[in-house]
Design a protein that fits this description.
mainly beta, Immunoglobulin-like, Jelly Rolls, 2 domains, BT_3987-like_N, FA58C, DUF1735 domain-containing protein
Length: about 325
């Protein structure tokens, strides 16, 4: 056996036998045996929720820290602490409002970490987002107030459930409708600036009407095969001449094409740049088969132009 091989062999023996010469050490973590809220860790309490009539469950509970397991059941108690909203706002320079009691139901405020487990049985907040103001930022502070055994982790015992945005599932349904206009481009709907350009999905094209001052009010309409509920629409301004932009208009809906309901009304509107897309939202709980825009005034010019008109349907998952 050569010297090099002997040295290598002795080295490997030393590596594998060294641990056996030392007493086994128990691995522990700084939070060993503490009870905390997992939802208070790493911003897990900042949530995005969907706008819906159906309640959405937001889960919370207690956890046992470290590498070991509890020997017996541990009861954890919670409370909602409204005073913490103002405290949080002052410390973080935010403007959250307390989530109204009428918008949620708590499944309970007490739970148990079973012996041999690290997580408690879950509790939840059943939140009905249809009842909240979508444009308000809400908070619901849930605090773990006591545990039956073990040490409460005071750094991670409160979850500041924050709802910065209520997201409404939506889809663009413009292409599902058929377009009609009250006044057409001189070259017809298929012309380079004909009415078909209004809903072609190409934001660099446009619909242009000449001598519009003598044709006020004028409009354009989408007809759907089945009634739909629209909650928003967009206008994209033309590529030039801001005086051709719409200034005052109404969006109306109809079930039969004869009787119309005004859903949104705008006045003195301005587009700050060319080919700018602006979104307009409104409240609407009714499905209509017909939707139309009635323009009552443009921005001072003698022609009307618009690059694109799109309509948005909100829906629930």
């Amino acid at each position: 056996m050569n010297t090099y091989f002997k040295i290598c062999l002795m080295g490997w023996i030393a590596i594998f036998t060294l641990p056996s010469c030392e007493k086994d050490r128990e691995i522990t973590l700084p939070n060993e045996g503490t009870i905390y809220m997992p939802q208070a860790v790493n911003n897990r309490d900042k949530l995005q929720i969907l706008f819906s009539q159906k309640p959405q469950n937001i889960y919370f509970g207690a956890a046992y820290g470290g590498m070991s397991y509890p020997d017996s059941d541990i009861t954890a108690n919670f409370s909602v602490d409204p005073a913490l909203v103002e405290k949080y706002n002052l410390e973080h320079n935010t403007g959250y409002q307390l989530l109204p009691d009428s918008t949620y139901i708590l499944s309970g405020l007490s739970t148990v970490i079973k012996a041999g487990q690290i997580n408690s049985e879950p509790l939840f907040i059943a939140l009905t987002t249809k009842k909240v103001d979508r444009h308000t930022k809400y908070m619901l502070p849930v605090k773990m107030t006591s545990v039956s055994t073990g040490k409460l982790d005071t750094a991670l015992h409160t979850a500041f459930f924050r709802f910065d945005a209520v997201v409404r599932p939506e889809r663009d349904i413009t292409n599902s409708g058929s377009l009609a206009v009250s006044h057409e481009n001189n070259g017809g709907p298929d012309a380079g600036e004909g009415s078909k350009k209004l809903v072609d999905g190409d934001y660099s094209s446009k619909f242009l009407i000449f001598d519009i001052k003598s044709k006020m009010p004028f409009g354009f309409q989408l007809t759907f095969q089945n009634p739909v509920k629209i909650g928003a629409y967009t206008f994209t301004s033309g590529n030039d001449a801001p005086d051709r932009d719409p200034k005052n208009w109404m969006l109306q809906g109809s079930a039969d094409g004869n009787n119309w309901t005004t859903l949104d009304s705008r006045s003195d509107e301005k587009f700050s740049s060319r080919n700018q897309t602006r979104r307009f939202e409104f409240e609407n709980e009714t499905q209509y088969k017909f939707y139309r825009i009635v323009v009552t005034e443009i921005n001072g010019g003698g022609l009307f132009q618009m690059s694109e008109w799109r309509v948005i349907e909100y829906y629930e998952l």
